[in-house]
């Protein structure tokens, strides 16, 4: 299993490295911008999956439905903007994953992986002042993928088989923190070669800025977000030396890059300068900060901030952020009475703002469930809606509530509908498995556990679960519906075994 420090090594020194120092290969040997790469989209996707399988196992990986939904709204808008501009070729659109993984890490960082996978630290979400600033980072990383920067660098000097490229990346990732781990994958010399070949050039960085800016504005975000994000990073580069901004090490700013973005904003007619965060964004950023392992002392300090002098003079978004932070911090400290009181103040503050009010209610339900106050959670859920039209955060909260109330049948239909259209949603499959077990539908529960492993690309784990489900299906008589389920299990088992064989061939 990769440790959090190993993921940071991957982010900082390998896949999104943009060092200003001379490249191992002279810049004039790089392919011209826009040239295709020798590596196929399928091969690049397989390399990305090889790495992502390890990231899913890392304890830093987090699937938070509320943060995930917020990031996904921005991400999907950027993908649509890239398609509209013709920056996302149909082959890549179809073959790549276009998936964002969140890391429970307080450092400010983001990264791109082969095959359309992106990673985002909660620390970065916690410091951006607006969704436009967050969109600027994601648009930049998206462009590294759509312009095939990663694959071009990997194929520049390395003509190895795709599985070897993935192994080199993992070895380079491990080498910076643990030589023993690196030797278990490949020799240090090969790992160093991989690292040297995976440094983005200055031209690639400028291209990611330029095209990312166009994608971002096409998607409807304020172009000033690019400039204010650059200014935030520039200020951090002057003041920060404690390693909490690894994005600066992997994306060093130059005056040329900053000036280029500043010159583009006036041409769009958009306002310059930082904007006041919306109430919803302020609350989402607060959630990211609390969930990124801040420590007990900081949680205690945050939980009392609404009582400090000067709170009442803050703007509404700032007060919402302070109350959200305090309520969630109190919940993390298991001070549930205080958390409920704080979230009630937040609910009152956000009345009349639909998006902010929804975020407050979602937090209130989370706190009620954590406190095992099921009547309160149920009454709050009534204000969030019900039925198949539920968004993912509400859907998962309702499933948890109904299962704990002893009424899992009320959650199963919605979950089944959801996974039919979102078959790689591991959290939904896990919730469905829990609901099935409460109804003593063991066969379906075990099959759902197999789907969780499939979603996380753990095909060995999926084979184990599907085989366990098949063993259950041959014991005794099955209900008519279970015969259909047994047939599905056989099909899924064959697919998992096929994927597992492909993995074995890549080693």
- Based on helices, strands and strand pairing, what is the structural class? mainly alpha
Major beta sheet, strand line-up:
1-2-4-3
Query: Number of DSSP helices?
Result: 26
Task: Kindly estimate the percentage of residues that lie in beta strands according to DSSP.
Answer: under 5%
Q: How does the overall form come out from the CA principal axes? A: globular
Terminal residue distance: 17 Å
| Unreliable residue stretches | 1-36, 172-198
Q: What does the main sheet amount to?
A: 4 strands, mixed
H/E topology pattern: HHEHHEEEHHHHHHHHHHHHHHHHHHHHHH
Report the helical percentage. Answer: 55-70%
Radius of gyration: 24 Å
Number of DSSP-assigned strands: 4
Mean pLDDT: 83
Model description:
This protein is mainly α and 507 residues long. Among the domains are: 4-166 and 199-268, no CATH class; 276-384, Serine Threonine Protein Phosphatase 5, Tetratricopeptide repeat (Alpha Horseshoe). The protein has 26 helices and four strands. The protein has helices at residues 4-15, 41-57, 65-84, 90-95, 122-127, 131-146, 149-157, 162-175, 179-185, 188-197, 202-218, 224-239, 246-250, 255-268, 279-290, 296-303, 316-332, 336-349, 354-370, 374-382, 392-404, 409-421, 426-438, 442-455, 459-473, 480-506, and strands spanning 61-62, 99-103, 110-113, 117-121. Strands 1-2-4-3 form a four-stranded mixed sheet, with helices on both faces. A hairpin with a 3-residue loop joins β3 and β4 (117-121). The chain starts with a helix and ends with a helix. The model is unreliable at 1-36 and 172-198 (pLDDT under 50).
